[in-house]
Amino acid sequence: SLELWNMVENKRMTLNAHEGLIAALAASSVTGVVASGSHDKSVKLWK
Hints:
Helix content is 0%, strand content 53%. The protein contains no helices and 5 strands.
């Protein structure tokens, strides 16, 4: 799972992200998009 902190609502968000370990994570403060890459050979975008 992937846990993100929502600074606007001041709470934690948990996402069922990947089947494998998350190997990479990038976030954009401009677009609000978070990208995650996993050992399950997938990349996912979250907004």
